[in-house]
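Limitations
The structure tokens in this dataset are predictions for the assembled complex, not deposited experimental models. Users should treat interface geometry with appropriate caution, especially where small molecules or nucleic acid strands are included. An illustrative entry is reproduced here so readers can see what is and is not provided.
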Amino acid sequence: IQMTQSPSSLSASVGDRVTITCRASQGIRNELAWYQQKPGSAPNLLIFGASTLQSGVPSRFSGSGSGTDFTLTISSLQPEDFATYYCQNYNSAPQISFGQGTRLEIK
Amino acid sequence: QVQLVESGGGVVHPERSLRLSCVASGFTFNKHGIHWVRQAPGKGLEWVAVIWYDGIYKYYGDSVKGRFTISRDNSKNAVYLQMDSLTTDDTATYYCARDRRASYAEAIDFWGQGTLVIVSS
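Predicted assembly:
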């Protein structure tokens, strides 16, 4: 199953509402996770089950979707949110696959 | 707190072998599957392998199948990745990471800091 994220990169300002999209090449129900990765650090789980917020993740992050189309939304960008975001499919478990990433930059 | 600490990375010649280790603490180790995920310099995340809680079931990504072997020792809270027939395409930071589930695979809720493997002549 191929995971395609869009856009590949995005420029935004603090306070903006941002949406990142992930599309699966075939239906994966809600078996999708989102991660944030900052330079020099390991990824950090934000959302699993397409819309369940991981413990400790700020509520400005939200996820939605089912089947083939998914979105990650940040309701009001904070300075610490500028990072690269990845979606991950686990419908094909035990194999998993990641999207190519979306780099979120400061405008 | 949950910790995963990788070791064993370094510089290795093509066609040679390397063994990575990951030692876990802060959770019940035998209740979670463990993945290896790698990231080439400046590139995205690539799933490498997973081993289920009991060490019996193991699965690999297509690019490493037949060359890499994942194993675990639950008595030592450790997971290993034996990498053989290395090529320059295997150059990456290798992360050890905990699955939320014991078997199959789901989301990865904790990651190690990574260990860098450079394959170069």
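Some entries come with short summary sentences. For this one: Chain B touches chain A through 25 residues (CB under 8 Å).
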